[in-house]
Q: What sequence folds into this?
């Protein structure tokens, strides 16, 4: 049992300490931004007492997704690259819908 605990401790040290650099820091910042989108969506929905997706959800999606894509490219992870690149297309498309809707509302006023 002690060997198993030591092995896990060694693994955590190798993963979280030995390989820590600016790229890993960027990855953590990117993941934090990406996670913020869920927080803002949850808070907006709680306030409205219904499901709401605020524009800031898409802002955090784009910021976090872009940084995660950069991180994935640096790490040369094809699965991560494909997932983040596809996600960014969807995030930008939703922002496009929001911008067009706001533009239509302004011209209708």
A:
């Amino acid at each position: 049992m002690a060997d198993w605990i030591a092995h896990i401790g060694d693994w955590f040290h190798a993963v979280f300490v030995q390989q820590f650099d600016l790229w890993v820091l960027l990855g953590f910042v990117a993941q934090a931004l990406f996670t913020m989108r869920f927080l803002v969506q949850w808070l907006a929905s709680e306030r409205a007492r219904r499901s709401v997706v605020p524009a800031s959800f898409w802002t955090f999606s784009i910021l976090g997704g872009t940084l995660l894509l950069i991180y994935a490219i640096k790490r040369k992870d094809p699965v991560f690259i494909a997932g983040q690149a596809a996600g960014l297309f969807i995030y930008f498309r939703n922002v496009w819908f929001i911008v067009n809707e706001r533009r239509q509302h302004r011209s209708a006023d």
